[in-house]
Design brief:
By secondary structure, the protein is α+β, with helices and mostly antiparallel strands. It has 2 domains: 2-84, no CATH class; 86-181. The protein has helices at residues 11-23, 87-180; strands at 2-4, 28-33, 38-45, 48-51, 66-68, 75-77. Strands 1-2-3-4 form a 4-stranded mixed β-sheet, with helices on one face. The longest helix is centred in the C-terminal third of the chain and has 94 residues, at 87-180.
């Protein structure tokens, strides 16, 4: 059991707590007064809580922690020598962790926004490529129509030439036939 005195603790109240812990078999009891930087400890021996003479450097057999009173406040170390953090150190660490988590959240949000912008850019690029493909296809269709129109125009011109040749050939034959019959076609 480890307790920290506060200004509201009365001596009679603390005596009753000690008697209760002693009666119910608490193995170790530590009482710290932060105003006086004083640590008092008791350990159960021969069925009773008995005072521990020297608390500075004491290693709790039950808790496996070492108490150090050489500084301006009590420091407690784990069995492996790692110091437990004070409340203000834990608060500072928690604040730093909150700041780190917030920064990480902001970075993730920035990354999400960057990814969304990249997705939108890729979508726009895809749309642009699709428009280019459609324009190219339309241009090919227009060129094909022009080629077909040109081909039709050439076929029409060829038909007209052939018709003209046929008409000229018929006129020539008719001219010759009229001459054979003794008719002067120029007189007609």
């Amino acid at each position: 059991m480890f307790e920290i005195l506060s200004p509201g603790n009365r001596p009679g109240e603390m005596t009753k707590k000690f008697e209760l812990y002693d009666r119910y078999g608490v193995e170790e009891y530590y009482l710290y007064d932060p105003d006086k930087v004083k640590l008092t400890g008791w350990r159960r021996r021969e069925g009773k809580l008995q005072s521990i003479d020297q608390m500075d450097g004491w290693v709790s057999p039950r808790l496996k922690v070492r108490f150090d009173l050489t500084g301006p406040e009590l420091q407690i170390f784990t069995e492996s020598g790692v110091r437990f953090l004070t409340y203000s150190e834990m608060a500072q660490r928690a604040e730093r962790e909150e700041q780190r988590a917030e920064l990480e959240r902001q970075l993730k949000e920035q990354e999400r926004q960057r990814a969304e912008q990249e997705r939108q850019r890729a979508e726009l690029e895809q749309q642009r490529a699709e428009r280019e493909r459609q324009l190219k296809e339309q241009e090919q269709q227009r060129a094909e129509r022009e080629r077909q129109l040109k081909e039709q125009e050439q076929q029409r011109a060829e038909q007209e030439r052939q018709l003209k040749e046929q008409a000229e050939a018929k006129i020539k034959m008719l001219y010759l036939r009229l001459q054979e019959l003794g008719i002067d076609p120029e007189q007609l």
